[in-house]
Amino acid sequence: MNAFRMYSLLIRASIVSKMQYKFNFWFSTVLAFVVNTMEFLLISIILWKFGSIKGWNLYEVGYLYGTILLSKAIYRTLASDVHHLEKYLVSGDLDQLLIRPIPLLLALMTQNFRIMLAEYIQGGIILTVCVHEMLQSGQIELWAIPQTAVVIIIGAVILFAIGLGTATFGFWITRVSDLQNVTEDAARTAVQYPMSLYPKWLQGILLTVIPVGAANYLPALYVLRHEFGFWLIPAIGLFAALFLFAMLQFWKLGMSRYQSTGS
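Above: the chain's sequence. Below: its structure in token form.
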């Protein structure tokens, strides 16, 4: 509870600091909304032209897109600067966080708190429309709504674990932005589409080495297509918890190898 209370206080202070620049907040929100909207419109145009991709229609692809977008928004809202560890390592600002009387990861997660309003709005709209249409057609039932909420939370945990594991490599190699482009940005973009589009070797990477496919694609096979069984989502939830635990241990190992700018 002390850690949670401290996290809440630090987040509140970060929000107050951010809102000192209201124009910048709203401008970045609108810009992010426009960029993401254009991206999804491109997907929609392709599906409108061809009807479906590998048997996946517009609403099913929209489901994949909406769930991973909301999972990403939760992860980047609650732990934005985990993704930006490199700048702390390069500038030496990580030393300032190390001397605070709180765990380093907690201090890092509360830096530059981002309210990703555009992603929440767009992801919510896309997911609501797609789920509504699939409910109307009888493809899914109302039970899919709470299942989807669980999928989004599990997805956020998986994305956070991937981001944390990637950032940890920075304690050895310092420059991790290129690696993050692969493990976070490119991998997440890939699973906005059905993974059946990709060759088997790439599917294997996205389910094992960089298990971002477990964040939305595998759950969607059960929620939308009733493949596998009811055990799938609990199993993915257990995997997410174990994966996060492993990445937290890796983070601790990385911290033990860190050499500050003053050493």
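Residues 2-256 form one domain.
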